[in-house]
Amino acid sequence: MSDPLGIALWRVSRVPGVTGALIVEADTGLPVLAELREGVEGGSLAALAAALFQRTSQASNAAGFGSLSTFHLEAEQGHVVAAGAGELIVVAIVADDAQLGLVRLETQRAAELLRAQREPMS
User: Fold this and answer.
1) 4-118 has which CATH code?
2) How far is it, in rounded angstroms, from Cα 39 to Cα 23?
3) What's the rounded Cα separation, in Å, for the pair 118 and 98?
4) Is-contact 108 83, C-beta < 8 A?
5) Angle at 78 between CA 75 and CA 83, to 5 degrees
6) Do 36 and 22 form a contact (C-beta atoms < 8 A)?
7) Does the pLDDT value for residue 41 go beyond 90?
8) For the whole prediction, is pTM greater than 0.70?
9) Residue 72 contacts by C-beta under 8 Å, 6 or more apart in sequence?
10) Which of 24, 31, 67, 76 is the most exposed place for a label (fewest CB within 10 A)?
């Protein structure tokens, strides 16, 4: 597999406990690529993740913390982990019993891969 988007998605979706993985356009909240288990609504999750990531990023900058790299939402029935990759956001939908450290690590690695692919060559 040589497609950076596919590789990034695979990195996240293969982690045990991940019930869905998406690559989302940061500005529009539209999914670019998704691998979701049955019953997971990708469009709504993409929009939610993008909106929360963008707003939290603005708040982080305003508070003097700098750029947001990773966002984690914990809810009653699971988690959303998102990592910024420039104009894209890598999103993982995660079951309650998953190893969140591993999910965060692979989500960040996927975002780094996408950022590296988008940087101009010297």
Assistant:
1) 3.30.450.30
2) 18
3) 30
4) yes
5) 90
6) yes
7) no
8) yes
9) 79, 80, 81, 82, 100, 104
10) 76
Q: Is the pLDDT of residue 58 over 70?
A: yes
**Collapsed DSSP state (helix, strand, coil) of residue 24:** strand
Helix pair 4-13, 100-118: axis angle to 10 deg: 180
Largest CA distance in the chain: 46
Cβ density class 37-49: b for 16+ within 10 Å, e for less: eeeeebeebbbbb
Q: Please state, rounded to an integer, the average pLDDT across all residues of the chain.
A: 91
Q: Which residue reads 């990592």 in tokens?
A: 83
Higher per-residue confidence, 118 vs 24: 24
Q: What percent of the chain has pLDDT over 90?
A: 80
Taking the alpha carbons at both ends of the chain, their separation in whole angstroms is 25
What are the C-alpha distances in Å from 19 to residues 25, 43, 93, 96, 110? 20, 15, 6, 10, 16
Q: Supply 90's token pair.
A: 């890598």
| Cross-strand bridge partners of residue 73 | 80
